Amino acid sequence: DEKVEEKTWVSPFLGFTESTIVLGSVVILFAAFVVVQFQYFFGGQANIHIAGYTFSEYARKGFGELVTVAFFSLLLLLGLGAITRRETENQRRTFSILGIGLVGLLIVMLIAAFQRLGLYEAAYGFSRLRTYTHVFMLWLGLLLVAVVILEIRRRERNIGLAMVLASLGFVISLSVLNVDAFIVKQNIQRETQSATDKTFAQGRADLDAQYFLDLSDDAIPPLVNAFHSKSLPASVKEKIGAALTCKQYEREQDERKVPWQAFHFSRLNADIAFKQVNKELDTYKITTTDGSRQVETPGGEEFPCYQYYYD
């Protein structure tokens, strides 16, 4: 075979045989793990009911395992790629095949983890943490695909750049997505579908409108739009109205003057949205009992105005 010279960051010192044994062993281990744990990876609802997991535990385990394995696997692949001597075309091809196999198995694990997160979101809706995780998995998937492409095109030195670009893409996409508005829209859409499709509604929790209190001004316009929607049940509309009443009362009690330097469009859009529902929100009454603030809806239901965190 013709010798191939590669430019690397450090001078390769590890023999091809030793490197192949390490990388090949990891690939075999991952492949065996995926086969043995296939039911656990893709069991979905069966794992929730049979194995006794909660949706949260099932999704967290999937995400935690994925991030840990992906990090150390990419680190291993980059490290071996930098220090392994590959002097012939066959050696070069063999190393690439093993690397692609490793990344391919990571993609299988990613799909499984994404499916688990989807079950969690379908059952309980979106939250900030779930949305961040959702977007992160998408960018991780793009990164893994980029690693495969770079390996095939023999541009492994650009994998580091791909990781940086994926990180930047993740951060930028969260800003473009407008996370709080996205959460409201997705959870309202989920509730709308549940109201019209009883099969879809089975096993899914009711809308947790109280979580909306923890969101920023970006959530106000989509909440107002949902409040005016005719497709939502009256009970859901009252929950949204109560959440808006709590948010409006909180803003009214905030006597701090906002300097012009602190102007932002989110607050402006929220103010405009509130003006559209002022008269309707007057039918919701704020009451305080033992220091706890709550809203009494037109239907006589009580809605607490305190915020809480959940994932």
Summary tags:
311 residues, mainly alpha, 2 domains, 66% helix
Describe the overall structure.
With 311 residues, the chain is mainly alpha-helical. It folds into 2 domains: 16-176, no CATH class; 179-304, no CATH class. 66% of the residues lie in helices and 4% in strands. The protein is built from 13 helices and 3 strands; from the N terminus they run H-H-H-H-H-H-H-H-H-H-H-H-H-E-E-E. The protein has helices at 16-36, 38-42, 45-50, 55-83, 89-124, 128-152, 159-177, 179-196, 198-201, 220-227, 234-253, 265-275, 278-281; strands at residues 285-289, 292-296, 302-304. Strand 2 (292-296) and strand 3 form a beta hairpin.
| Strand tally | 3
Proportion of residues in β-strands: under 5%
Q: What is the total domain count? A: 2
Proportion in helices: 55-70%
Summed up, the helix count is 13
Q: What characteristic shape results from the CA principal axes?
A: elongated
Spatial sequence of strands, sheet with the most strands: 1-2-3
In the predicted model, the low-confidence regions spanning at least 5 consecutive residues are: none
Largest sheet at a glance? 3 strands, antiparallel
Distance between the termini: 56 Å
What structural class do you assign from the helix and strand content? Answer: mainly alpha
| Mean residue pLDDT | 84
| SSE order, one letter for each helix or strand | HHHHHHHHHHHHHEEE
